[in-house]
Amino acid sequence: MVTSLPQPDAVGRVEKGLFIGGRWRSASGGGSFSVEDPATGRTLCEVSDATPADALVALDTASAAQAKWAAVPPRRRGEILRRAHDLLIERIDEFALLITLEMGKSPAESRAEVEYGANYLRWFGEEAVRIDGSRKVSEDGTARVLVTRQPVGPCLLITPWNAPLAMPARKIGPAVAADCTMVVKPCAARKVIAARHTVYLGLGTGRSR
User: CB of 138 within 8 A of CB of 127?
Assistant: First the structure.
């Protein structure tokens, strides 16, 4: 007989809306969809179903914030990512439970995903201060060539279904380190609880509720 894991306040603590411009909001059309426990078929929760209009608002918001975010010093960006890493590890059991509930992964596999997902944030946090350029003399000796690295601007991060925490972290990390704002779209396979929570930890200036 298949039984589901107990679900303390882990699911209840997850925000069910769209995280745009530093705050949570409902979908513009008011729509939502169910996230189910694959072990039992029971609905874990309802989350907001973004519309194309919501996507455009998210992109406009990311574009408007790009210049200000690009001025954040590398050390500060690294600290934000390190703090996000620490929060994930601090709440590893909660995130592992979320992954197991919505994905059906074993608790051990879910816990391992949280660990290596958090390590993406730490690694890119350490790389934030190492984004450099180059300077050289042109091949004909008549000029000096200077290369500097600048953020490309808002990034669209589309994540797969099979790693709902690690893959958002793997994409959020380099974007934050490189001074880019972003729009994150979890997979349409409806494995979004851990993805949404990870986005909040990664983008919410290293804070969590």
Answer: no
67: phi then psi, degrees, rounded to nearest 5: -65, -45
In 10 A of CB 129, how many CB atoms? 14
* Selection from 127, 131, 22 nearest residue 78 by Cα: 127
Cβ pair 18, 24 in contact under 8 A: yes
* Contact criterion met (CB below 8 Å) for 187 and 33: no
Residue type, 148: T
33, 22, 183, 12 alpha-carbon torsion, rounded to 10°: -30
Could you report the per-residue pLDDT of 81-116, keeping only the tens digit for each? 999 999 899 989 999 999 999 889 999 999 999 999
Beta bridge partners of 184: 157
By the 8 A CB rule, do 147 and 162 touch? no
User: CA-CA distance, 42 to 100, in Å (whole number)?
Assistant: 14
pTM of the entire predicted model: 0.85
Total residues found in the chain within this entry = 209
Per-residue pLDDT band at 3 (split at 50, 70, 90): very low
| Residues 5-64 pLDDT 10s | 555 577 888 888 899 988 889 999 899 988 888 888 999 989 999 999 999 999 999 999
| Strand residue runs (E) in the chain | 18-20, 23-25, 32-36, 43-48, 134-137, 144-147, 155-158, 182-185
